[in-house]
Description:
The complex is a heterodimer of chains A (259) and B (214). With 259 residues, chain A is of the alpha/beta class. Chain A has 2 domains: 28-118 and 216-255, Periplasmic binding protein-like II (D-Maltodextrin-Binding Protein, domain 2), CATH 3.40.190; 119-214, D-Maltodextrin-Binding Protein, domain 2, CATH 3.40.190.10. Chain A contains 11 helices and 11 strands. In chain A, strands 1, 4, 5, 6, 7, 8, 9, 10 and 11 form a 9-stranded mixed beta sheet that branches. Chain A is globular and about 55 Å long. The mean pLDDT of chain A is 88. Chain B is mostly helical and 214 residues long. In chain B, helix 1 (2-40) crosses helix 4 (85-110). The longest helix of chain B is centred in the N-terminal third of the chain and has 39 residues, at 2-40. The model of chain B has no long low-confidence stretch (mean pLDDT 93).
Amino acid sequence: MKKLLALVLALTMGLTLAACGGKSDSDVKYVKDKGTLVVGMTDFAPMDYRDGNGEWIGFDADMAKAFAESLGVTAEFIEITWDSKAMELETKAIDVVWNGMTLTDEVKSLMGVSEPYCKNAQVVVLSADLAGQYMSADAIGSLTFAVENGSAGMKALDGLNIPYTAVDTQAKALMEVAAGSTDACVIDLLMAGAMIGPGTSYPQLATAAELESEEYGVGFRKDSDLVKAFNDFWKSAYDEGTVLSTAQTYGIAQNIIEK
Amino acid sequence: MVSFWSVTASLATGLITTGKLFFLTLVFALPLGLIICFGSMSRFPPLRGLVKTAVWIVRGSPLMLQILIVYYGPGLLLGLPLLPRFTAALVTFVINYACYFSEIYRGGIQSIPRGQYEAGQVLGMRRSQIFFRVTLLQLVKRIVPPMGNEMITLVKDTALVRVISVYEIIWMGESFIRKGMMWPLFYTAVFYLAVNGLLTLLLGWFEKKLSYFK
């Protein structure tokens, strides 16, 4: 029993020491030593989605691969639960959140964020035959809403004092509208472009009022030197034209922020 | 029809994760439960108190919270490297289910008439001999129905591990919602029903096999 106790204590101490030893000040060094840049994302076309072979592609995925390459490491993609993104970063389960992330005050307080690289807007989506009547933010007060919990769309509705039902993804918010349980939802313009209207799964839905414009950024651990490494990488990739050509591939060139 | 089969294939990969979690949880939690059960019936009060408190904490707090604590806890509180996602999920399930199982074992053991222990003692058997030669066979028979209940609950509880991004069936089903398909999420129910149907048949068969005292 005493031996067992001694063993357990020794193990705990060893682990604690190992943890202290592993804590280097440089996140860039940590990632390089490890050889992989672990990217936390969700399935979110056109930023991150799988091609026919199950490979992750999309504007964010392609740029993440290029960024990893610039560090001399390989990018590894992990689909995360979006609500846990800050915890995933802090515990080193992932190294970066790169998934069309809106730079809200909350995100900025929880992570070290890059300079914004992409513009977007929060937009009201509802049945196409009603869309014409709700083209301004003043007109939408009478509708019932579904919106992704914690999203920029939810903040926009909060700002307008409009009640809503919070659901866990933007896609579920769309599903609520399609199923008729709410009149409208607020999602971002990029997603709306890819998911609603003729030729998509929701041909009966259309966009109406634009509530708020926003910017996308990439999230790292607080005070991480990866932020600077990213900003430098992005500037040179923009100058080389890689950013715009990749954006064109995925049809979002108009959303890219000029550097 | 193509999409039906590709959805089925995708959910089947989730089913493999769910199945692995289910089987490994049983493999480790069934014996661990017995050990915890002995602890909670120990004649040494401090040990008994400790085990009962642990069982109270594990049974009294939400499993989802326990999963989050086991996975993120070491990194958040101590700055330690994390366990792999599946391992963290498995560890949580084994501890959680072992606590529930321990109470089922205890119920089973205490339902064996006192007279049998006394008879064993009169015959000069040791406590361990009484347990393995007299109690155990009757115990197994009595705990099959409540264990079956727990196992069926376990199959469905595996859905909780998606909070730490372990890709089980419900996660796979939900991921289709992003592609504008709602039915795969509801279709996952078919998989749970099939697994639990099979499990029910298996438990029924096992119970029949155990009618050795009739």
